[in-house]
TrEMBL record:
Domain HTH araC/xylS-type as annotated: residue spans: 163-265
Superkingdom, taxonomy of origin: Bacteria
Lineage of producing organism: Bacteria, Bacillati, Bacillota, Bacilli, Bacillales
A GO molecular-function descriptor: DNA-binding transcription factor activity
Name by which UniProt lists this protein: HTH araC/xylS-type domain-containing protein
Entry-linked InterPro entries: DUF6597, HTH_AraC
Natural source organism: Bacillus solimangrovi
Length: 282
């Protein structure tokens, strides 16, 4: 596998409530290259290529070349990517449950889908794609992205009770050591489980139960990879799994393979859930 240059940049303060980070992949070579398997995620991302777009193969083995700029919805299963030439892309990683502040669509429409940004943002999306492609530096691309994100936020921002409930529930469900159940959270915010499920489907893209399932999987896999730990029983118990068999079963469901097989390949490339520390001047 070729050496990839991967970097992460935190957003400006005005967007930190919505954006986890901007991340960049680059390489100098031109060759057919298999990339690390992309695992399920609670984040929605918008990806812009300024070099060759990837080929994506889903869990059903269907392959297609990705658009130059596309939105990746919440993914409930894995996908494989293949580079067909020089790699150059910048992506916006939205915090879970925030992308609805930048569009009019219900977020469930994006789940397990990849769509061209022009389908969602129209002419504004086309303009953004063109300017990103023409920009010559990473900082220039980020400046362009943040300008357009603020325009979209001005058009679509919603401050509702549902938003507050969703934000609280997400925070609770993402805590690996949280003992709160979904019924407990519903009782705290004064709504039924059916109401919370409807809010999550509309604003997050999956049900609270599935969100918790993916979040546990992300937290556990990230910890194992970043610690480069093959003996992971303590880690999986700390993250809420009953035992090793429980974790292996969920891992196979979501990744298509067993933990040791996949994680050993991704110890050096598990960038997908890297924790970003904001720089003091941003």
């Amino acid at each position: 596998m070729r050496e990839l240059n991967i970097s992460f940049i935190p957003p400006s303060k005005c967007l930190r409530e919505f954006i986890d980070c901007y991340w960049i992949w680059e390489s100098d070579e031109n060759s057919l290259t298999e990339l690390p398997r992309i695992l399920p995620s609670t984040n929605i991302e918008v990806v812009f290529y300024y070099q060759s777009p990837f080929i994506c193969t889903d869990h059903n083995n269907n392959s297609s070349k990705l658009p130059l700029a596309h939105i990746v919805g919440v993914q409930k299963t894995y996908m494989d990517l293949c580079a067909t030439g020089q790699i150059g892309l910048i992506a916006i990683r939205f915090l879970p449950g925030t992308f609805h502040q930048f569009c009019k669509e219900q977020i469930g429409e994006f789940t397990d889908h990849i769509c061209n940004i022009s389908e969602v943002w129209g002419q504004l999306g086309d303009e953004l794609q063109y300017k990103i492609h023409e920009a010559s530096t990473t900082q220039h691309r980020i400046d362009i992205i943040e300008h357009y994100l603020l325009l979209l936020l001005k058009s679509y921002y919603k401050n509702t009770t549902h938003q507050a409930i969703q934000s609280y529930a997400i925070n609770q469900l993402m805590q690996s050591n949280s003992k709160k159940t979904i019924p407990h959270i519903c009782n705290e915010v004064g709504i039924s489980q059916r109401q919370l499920q409807r809010i999550f489907n509309d604003l997050v893209g999956v049900s609270p139960k599935y969100f918790q399932k993916i979040s546990m999987f992300e937290n556990t896999s990230r910890t194992i990879c970043l610690l480069k730990e093959h003996e992971y029983l303590t880690i999986i118990l700390e993250n809420g799994y009953y035992d090793q068999a429980h974790f292996i079963n969920i891992f196979k469901q979501l990744s298509g393979t067993n933990p040791l097989s996949l994680l050993s390949k991704n110890f050096m490339s598990y960038f997908y859930n890297t924790v970003i520390t904001p720089s003091p001047n941003m």
